[in-house]
Amino acid sequence: MKKDKNQMKKEYNEILTLTGKYLEQKKEQGERQVYLSKEIKLSQKEKSSTVPENLLAKLEKKLKNCRKCNLGESRTNLVFGAGNPRAWLMFVGEGPGHDEDMKGLPFIGRAGKLLTNIIEAMKMKREDVYIANIVKCHPMIDPGQPQKRGNDRPPRPEEIAQCKPFLLKQIEIIKPEVICTLGTHATQSLLEITTPIGVLRGKFCSFGNCKLMPTYHPAALLRNSNLKKFVWEDMKKIMKERSKN
Ligand code: SF4
Questions:
Q1: Is this prediction's pTM over 0.85?
Q2: Is the CB of residue 36 less than 8 Å from the CB of residue 153?
Q3: Which atom from ligand 1 is nearest to the alpha carbon of 155?
Q4: What is the distance between the alpha carbons of residues 158 and 213, in angstroms, rounded to a whole number?
Q5: What is the topology classification, in CATH, of domain 47-244?
Q6: How many Å apart are CA 144 and CA 163, to the nearest integer?
Q7: How far is CA 180 from CA 23, 79, 149, in A?
Q8: Which helix (H) or strand (E) holds 133?
Q9: Which position among 95, 139, 144, 219 has the lowest Cβ density within 10 Å, counted as fewest Cβ atoms?
Q10: In whole angstroms, how large is the CA radius of gyration of the chain?
Q11: Contact (Cβ atoms closer than 8 angstroms) between residue 92 and residue 179
């Protein structure tokens, strides 16, 4: 398959990182001159320690039994995130709901199906992007009834504070060009502001090395279909941004 420009850019950056590591290692070993050969040999361990797929798998394994906040006590499954570990576009929601908690996968309920439609309308597949949430365990109104539908609530600030570092680590590994936050809680939590989503949506802002586009949560579109046109406007801006690179 033909690699696109951005994929090549990513791979080029990975090669630079590996080369830098190799030179650092030689420096630590006391070498002051390095002779270039056709191939720089890196150990299998060094290679695997910089591969996004491996780094994400390692992080997921580390989180498997996480109980850093009270959500860990009531969850059925931890919902780590899913998609392309080298995605240029990452969607971030607020937290898993009932269906996600049952299956351990993000955005698979009605709102998730709508998100899939949006991604496909952007001429991509779900597997092309990465989908995650601010918190990885299901925030419930009544934690004693994980089987009950309609038991969802937004994550609390203390839960976000505990879980957000894991999302930031995922972003650091994936290095997306664009992050699209879905809804009030994801947007306000990542940007650490309290401005309403209606004001924030549709305008790119900087987030580390990437751009962040806030938009409405697909669940909001299920409640109010008039919002769909705004989300589509935001997606068009994301696609336009991508075409510039
Ligand atoms: S929500 Fe995050 S911090 Fe809380 S238990 Fe789950 S993985 Fe750990």
A1: no
A2: no
A3: 1
A4: 25
A5: Uracil-DNA Glycosylase, subunit E (3.40.470)
A6: 21
A7: 36, 18, 27
A8: strand 130-133
A9: 144
A10: 20
A11: yes
Closest-lying ligand 1 atom to the alpha carbon of residue 63? 7
For the chain, which ranges sit under pLDDT 50? 1-2, 38
Extract the tokens encoding 118. Answer: 């949006």
Q: Measuring from each residue's beta carbon to the nearest atom of ligand 1, which residues come in under 6 Å? A: 63, 66-69, 71-72, 78, 135-137, 159, 162-163
Cα-to-centroid distance, 164 and ligand 1 (Å): 9
Nearest CA owner, ligand 1 atom 3:
163
Task: Give residue 138 CA to ligand 1 midpoint distance, Å.
Answer: 9
Kindly give the distance from the C-alpha atom of residue 100 to the centroid of ligand 1, in angstroms, as a whole number.
14
Q: Which of 150, 130, 131 is nearest to 142 (CA)?
A: 150
d(CA 89, CA 210) in angstroms, rounded, equals 10
3-state class (DSSP) for residue 179? strand
Determine the pLDDT at residue 46.
Answer: 65
Bridge-based pairing state of the strands 205-207 and 210-215? antiparallel
Q: In a 3-state reduction of DSSP, which class is residue 168?
A: helix
Domain range annotation of the chain: 47-244
How do residues 168-216 score in pLDDT, each as one tens digit? 999 999 999 999 999 999 999 999 999 999 999 999 999 999 999 999 9
CA dist 144 and 130 (Å) reads 31
Q: Which has the closest alpha carbon to 83: 120, 126, 50?
A: 126
Tell me the CA–centroid distance for residue 140 and ligand 1, in Å: 13
* Ligand 1 atom at minimal distance to the Cα of residue 72: 5
CA 202 to CA 234: how far, in whole Å?
A: 5
Furthest-apart CA atoms within the chain: distance in Å:
65
